[in-house]
Amino acid sequence: MSIDTLNWKILTCLQNNARQSNAEIGRQVGVSSPAVSERIKKMEDAGIIQGYHAFVSPFEAGYQLKAIITLRAFMGMLKPFLEKVKTYDEVLNCYRITGNENIVMEVVLKNQKHLESFIDQLIVYGETKTQIVLSHVIKYNEVRPIN
């Protein structure tokens, strides 16, 4: 499915506020509510729209630390880690990457002690490097048309 200009306008509206009504989106992009609904359904079916989410503040939910942890897996430990990482509640995002490390994770932790115990669980699988996140520079930036 190609994403035409109107679909991009609808996607922009949804990325800015997925809770707005189809009628409101229609007013913003200049089409009827049923037309918006039909286009959204087609984009969902095509996998362009993959879901709708509430973004929860980890800090307001009681987590004091957010960190980026990279892992360079030991020989033979990458596949076991890829299964294990799915069980960690601390992991918000996990990416398998190219380069010296195999994995990049974005994690939330209660405090430094929690960070220490979490790293202790990871070092069975490989070498880790940890960076503490101080603040977001760009957060949930929207996907835009390719020029």
From TrEMBL:
One of its GO terms (molecular function) is sequence-specific DNA binding. Pfam families: AsnC_trans_reg, HTH_24. PANTHER family: HTH-TYPE TRANSCRIPTIONAL REGULATOR LRPC (PTHR30154:SF53), LEUCINE-RESPONSIVE REGULATORY PROTEIN (PTHR30154). GO terms for biological process: regulation of DNA-templated transcription; response to amino acid. This is Lrp/AsnC family leucine-responsive transcriptional regulator. It comes from the Bacteria. GO terms for cellular component: cytosol. Keywords: DNA-binding, Transcription, Transcription regulation. Residues 3-64 form the HTH asnC-type domain. It comes from Gelidibacter sediminis. InterPro entries: ArsR-like_HTH, AsnC-type_HTH_dom, Dimeric_a/b-barrel, Tscrpt_reg_AsnC-like, Tscrpt_reg_AsnC/Lrp_C, Tscrpt_reg_HTH_AsnC-type_CS, WH-like_DNA-bd_sf, WH_DNA-bd_sf.
